[in-house]
Design a protein that fits this description.
Length: 1185
């Protein structure tokens, strides 16, 4: 079973230690049940010991870095083992090797890892410092004073100005806008770029911006404790013994941005880590790859194997001492206090030191270098560089590279991740005629995105009243805020796109008062009286306005979802409705967001009578909503159809192609978004995640737990009627010492493709303990899963659910602060540098600018990193087990005396010098096929998901291979040297000559084995390979020279061995024979395996040799799809906004206000204007290629 499922054990241990210490010191903070605070009273608020507004995402400080970092590093079993080994080597009677052979590599490993961890944490400290040192105006003793964010405390009153970030979670007190309204952008919280409206209480709004009055304000707030619910807030404000209810509309959350509001004042309720933004961020976890966890288990197994070998040799030593040892005591007497039993005990620990190379410490040094090198390749990849924003890809951590090659589930945000946060007016249908795309001479679609400064009256013929009516209604909006030079900001981003498009064609929304709306129609100023607004809600799915034109004509203008508006059309529109429906199906096939526009001429006498009943319904105490709905239904009948609009929630470049490639690699993509259901569905179809060819797309939108369970079960039974009612769960043991109990829900086969869409309310029920397995089973049967209206916490819970029960490697990708908890929860977190700030990037493991780069990160860099790491581990264990097993065989010929078969200097240099660089060269540059072939055949990714390249079985095969090689490398040289003489008759069968021959054979064999394992040769590989062999012979001749012996007699005893042995032909013949016997079976076995059971890599590598390099895939426009589903509607108003529009106090007198953006090239300014396509007429029924 896969071992890469449990992360964060270190944090849990450290958290428990810290909690225990705090409890001992009496400093453990009690759980807060209710927050009580008083405005402008730091003494009172300080008694509750609330946290200040400083945030901390770093892990260490100067004092805790050394102990915490060393604690984390020694949780690696191998590091603890080498520390124990170092202590053993300090005992003279046990150690047969010098202490520095272990101490130097151990210190090097700890230092390299410590420096890397310190570097990562310094970046986090800098990020925290940048945020904490921002300045804000704080009211202190009746005066506004600039303070750093970190010094803001609960109960302070602060002043925010336009385009400022909200400092903390605030209770809105007053604002510059009428009715004490403020407009905020919540993109970092919920991913939505449309403006939200917040409103202060009247009692606090009357204080205005008077610092004296605000400074004397002593209101008390009692509210809920800190929590992560973004959409709910409960509390009460007490002012002069009067209690006022507080809800979410009165609160500004940290992470929001103030828009179109000159100033506002707020009372700090939650600060720093207590804010809802930080409560949703999740804990920073110490992430480790699945290979790290597997290596911990393998190291434990190796320790057992090492103890077994040492025990066997200890028994051998005891037997030998009893039977043969007495013969040698004449000339090699024992020490006085040493018995045969004590000698055997000491021999056990001596062999622990001699055979410690089964787990060499250089393994971890090499692993860190390989990960660092592969991280640099990601940073340096020009094909992942986004020139528009000058943003390169960045590996923000160097410890997770190989997990990029094992991803099975991707959890993606929508807004800003799959889309660009830009609404583009794409096409429309007017009176049965389709208007839409432009094509060049070659048939390619042309996008015209620049905003037109001069209107084009020629587009709308003055004689065509239908076209004029359509553009008039499209340009008429009841919820726009005009900022700057006719830059529109609307509650609905779709409405902003429509109004801007109408402006470009001669119908310009200019201004509004509570009773009138001013338009410029084809250059002519026209003022309409706003009679009534029939507000939008999620049940009506439409919005209407009643207006009176200058000539006294009364019109009802309605826009909404096609299914809703069609039910209210006049029978005379049946034929037009059929034509428009065909156009809507085309638009839906392209994944566009649609609205249907209709109108109705009203009779004056009827409207007067209707207005009277409308007034009575608005003032009714009981049944107000029901009476209003009846009135709306009554007047919104017999509408005349004008046409339909299609707005594109513009995808990032290459998103559908990327999702298609990842799906071919058997990677499942789940979309977790805060947007509404219709928007999420539209994007699902645009990205080809949801397709018309699917057998069914299940919608789960129930309101109770039982209904959610029933809908999930019905979906599962339809997909797999024969499946058991209870899931098939496999229970097993995993982790260090096999103490962790894991449960795996097995995949169930489904015939055909299905999709699942579930909203946040239903997901909350589905994630409960008794229903989560049902959710997991149903979701995993589906090809596509889309969760909409989910909170940041729910995103993390979905990720944790899949991690726990699917035992698969997960990746989360997003661009906003609402994605941080999901990014931290997944095995690998990816942040996109987008329009929603840098919070996701700061918390991520990898980052880049565009979603399409994800396929290169996984299919190229991830797959190569996994392949290289697995090759490295296989080879490294092979060469070190072979090295160690030769010691084992030699023990039977040296009286089990713990004598080493090699020269001590060869033992020191074997892993650090002679074999280090060649394996690093392979592990950094090797590739089975290049990047183009990797893109062409995404199926190459599947072996990583199944963990085929390195697992326990592969490890056992490496041991068996090493065992065979060690037999050859010991007994062939031993037999060749036994009773052998030189050409001149002198004896050559001595220990030193045998040691030289054995180590030379070993080095030649492992070097040739590396050549067989290398797929891709570079000049660096060649240099490392031949350079290491040359270094071995050069060092050997130098160390075994007379000069070194004379200078350091005790350190270099092998004087003259190299020149006396390596000039003999039989020595070189022995090296050749041993190499042939070691490598020939490997070549033969691989040849037979490729012929009988070729892998996909084998097949493709053979194909690469036969075919030319594939050309880059041309970018073709997607084929036109005709959808039979009802098109999703483009509308995202908040209910109740119509009442504000018609309020007498809604708009203040028009006055010149400062420009929102002084720098036109600033990032904020770039986000402000929306760019929309121009429209050209196309013949009815025509289709693009």
């Amino acid at each position: 079973m896969d071992e890469g499922v449990k992360y964060g054990e270190t944090e849990l241990k450290m958290e428990s230690v810290v909690t225990y210490v705090r409890r001992l010191l009496g400093r453990e903070k009690k759980k807060e049940e209710e927050r009580h605070l008083r405005a402008n009273d730091r003494t009172f608020n300080g008694s509750f010991r609330y946290t200040n507004n400083a945030i901390k995402t770093s892990k260490y400080n100067i004092i805790t870095f050394l102990p915490l970092n060393l604690f984390e590093q020694f949780t690696r079993l191998a590091n603890a083992y080498f520390l124990f080994l170092f202590c053993l080597q300090l005992i003279p009677r046990v150690s047969s090797l010098s202490w520095f052979t272990t101490a130097v590599p151990l210190i090097l490993v700890l230092s390299i890892t410590g420096v890397k961890d310190a570097s990562d944490d310094i970046k986090r400290h800098r990020s925290d410092k940048q945020v904490n040192n921002r300045k804000v105006d704080v009211l202190v003793d009746g005066q506004l004073k600039k303070e750093k964010w970190r010094n803001v405390q609960v109960g302070d009153i602060i002043k925010l100005e336009n385009n400022q970030f909200v400092t903390a979670d605030l209770l809105l007190l007053s604002s510059s806008e009428p009715l004490n309204l403020v407009y905020v952008e919540t993109a970092e919280l919920d991913g939505e770029t449309n403006l939200k409206v917040k409103q202060a209480l009247t009692v606090t709004g009357e204080m205005g911006n008077s610092t004296e009055v605000l400074g004397a304000f002593k209101g008390e707030v009692r509210c809920e404790p800190p929590n992560n619910r973004l959409d709910k807030f409960k509390g009460a404000l007490t002012v002069d013994k009067q209690v006022y209810s507080l809800d979410n509309d009165k609160v500004l959350l940290r992470g929001c941005t103030l828009r179109n509001t000159e100033w506002c004042f707020g009372l700090v309720i939650f600060g720093g880590p207590d804010t809802k933004l930080m409560q949703n961020s999740g804990k920073t976890k110490f992430k480790r790859t699945s290979i790290d966890h597997l290596m911990n288990i393998l190291v434990l197994c190796i320790f057992g194997f090492l103890a077994t070998m040492c025990a066997i040799l200890t028994v051998g030593n005891a037997v030998w001492e009893v039977k043969e040892g007495s013969v040698f005591t004449v000339f090699l007497p024992r020490e006085d206090d040493t018995s045969a039993g004590l000698s055997s005990f000491l021999t056990f620990w001596s062999y622990v030191i001699v055979l410690n190379t089964v787990v060499p410490i250089s393994l971890y040094v090499s692993v860190e270098f390989i990960r660092l090198g592969n991280s640099f390749f990601i940073d340096w990849d020009r094909k992942m560089y986004y020139p528009k924003n000058d943003t390169p890809a960045q590996a923000r951590t160097t410890t997770l590279n190989e997990d990029l090659g094992r991803i099975k589930y991707i959890f993606s945000d929508k807004t800003g991740t799959l889309t660009q946060n830009i609404m583009v007016f794409n096409r429309c249908s007017i009176n049965g005629k389709a208007f839409g795309e432009l094509f060049d001479f070659s048939g390619q679609r042309v996008e015209i995105t620049e905003v037109r400064k001069n209107t084009d009256p020629g587009f709308v013929p003055s004689s065509d009243t239908t076209l004029q009516s359509f553009m008039f209604q499209q340009g008429f909006s009841s919820s726009l805020v005009i900022s700057g030079e006719l830059h529109y900001q609307a509650q609905s981003p779709d409405e902003g796109a429509l109004v801007t498009a109408a402006r470009n064609f001669g119908f310009v929304f200019r201004s509004r008062t509570p009773e009138t709306v001013t338009l410029m129609e084809m250059g002519r100023k026209v003022i309409y009286e706003l009679v009534a607004v029939l507000d939008f809600n999620n049940v009506r799915k439409r919005m209407s306005v009643i207006v009176r034109s200058p000539d006294g004509k009364l019109l009802l203008l309605c826009k909404g979802a096609d299914t809703i508006v069609y039910e209210r059309l006049h029978p005379s529109c049946d034929n037009l409705m059929k034509v428009t429906t065909n156009h809507l199906n085309e638009y839906a096939g392209d994944g566009l967001r649609t609205l249907v526009l209709a109108y109705k001429d009203l009779d004056k006498s009827y409207l007067e009578e209707w207005k009277q009943r409308h007034h009575e319904a608005c003032t009714a105490i009981d049944g107000r909503e029901e009476r209003l709905d009846e009135l709306y239904e009554e007047i919104e009948k017999d509408l005349m159809l004008l046409g339909a609009t299609a707005v594109e929630d513009k995808l990032q470049d290459g998103v559908p192609q990327t999702i298609e490639q990842l799906a071919k690699a058997d990677i499942k993509i789940w979309v977790l978004t805060g947007d509404k259901q219709e928007t999420a569905e539209n994007i699902g179809y645009s990205c080809n995640m949801l397709r018309e060819e699917m057998k069914d797309v299940f919608i789960v939108a129930a309101n109770t737990a039982d209904e959610v369970r029933e809908e999930l079960q019905n979906a599962r039974r339809k997909m797999c009627p024969d499946a058991a009612e209870t899931p098939h769960v496999t229970t097993s043991r995993a982790g260090l010492f096999w103490l962790q109990k894991t449960q795996t829900v097995q995949d169930e086969k489904v015939d055909g493709d299905y999709g699942l869409v579930i909203n946040g309310h239903s997901l909350a029920f589905a994630l409960e303990k008794d229903m989560r397995m049902e959710l997991l089973r149903t979701a995993c049967m589906c090809q596509t899963v889309i969760c909409c209206r989910v909170t940041p916490l729910q995103k993390a819970q979905v990720v944790e659910l899949v991690k726990k029960y699917k035992q698969a490697v997960t990746l989360a990708i997003g661009d906003g602060a609402n994605d941080v908890s999901m990014i931290k929860a997944a095995h690998v977190g990816v942040g996109i540098s987008g329009h929603e700030g840098m919070q996701a990037v700061i918390s991520s493991d990898f980052s880049f600018a565009q979603f399409r780069y994800l396929q290169r990160l996984l299919l190229v860099h991830g797959r190569w990193s996994y392949l290289r790491m697995c090759k490295f581990l296989r080879y490294f264990f092979y060469k070190n087990f072979t090295f160690t097993f030769v010691h084992f065989w030699y023990a039977f010929f040296c009286g089990f005396s713990a004598q080493t078969v090699y020269d001590e200097w060869f033992i020191t240099c074997y892993n650090l010098v002679y074999t280090a660089l060649p394996v690093l060269g392979m592990s950094l540059f090797d590739q089975d096929v290049n990047d183009r072939w990797s893109f062409r055949y995404p199926q190459l990714y599947s072996p990583g998901q199944q963990n085929l390249y390195f697992n326990k079985k592969v490890f056992v095969r490496c041991m068996m291979h090493s065992w065979y090689s060690s037999l050859i490398l010991f007994f062939i040289p031993w037999a060749a040297m036994h009773d052998t003489v030189r050409d001149d008759g002198k004896d050559i069968a001595d220990y030193q000559s045998f040691a030289l021959l054995a180590q030379t054979c070993l080095l030649v064999v492992v070097s040739v084995q590396l050549c067989l394992d290398t797929y891709y040769w570079t000049a660096v590989n060649q240099f490392f390979m031949w350079g290491s062999l040359a270094a071995y012979f050069a060092v050997s001749f130098t160390m075994y020279s007379n000069g070194m012996f004379l200078i350091f007699t005790s350190a270099f005893p092998f004087v003259g061995v190299a020149r006396n042995s390596l000039n003999q032909p039989n020595v070189w013949l022995t090296i050749f024979l041993a190499s042939l016997l070691c490598l020939l079976p490997v070549v033969a076995f691989r040849f037979i395996l490729i012929q009988l059971r070729p892998t996909i890599n084998d097949k493709l590598r053979h194909k690469v040799q036969m075919e030319a390099l594939p050309a880059p895939a041309p970018r073709r426009p997607p084929p036109r799809r005709i959808s039979t589903r009802r098109s999703g509607y483009a509308f995202s108003h908040a209910q109740g906004y119509g009442n504000l529009v018609t309020s007498k106090n809604f708009l203040r007198p028009l006055k010149k206000r400062t420009a929102l953006f002084v720098q036109t090239d600033s990032p904020l300014a770039q986000n402000e204007p929306q760019h929309y396509r121009s429209i050209a007429e196309e013949p009815e029924g025509s289709q693009s290629p």
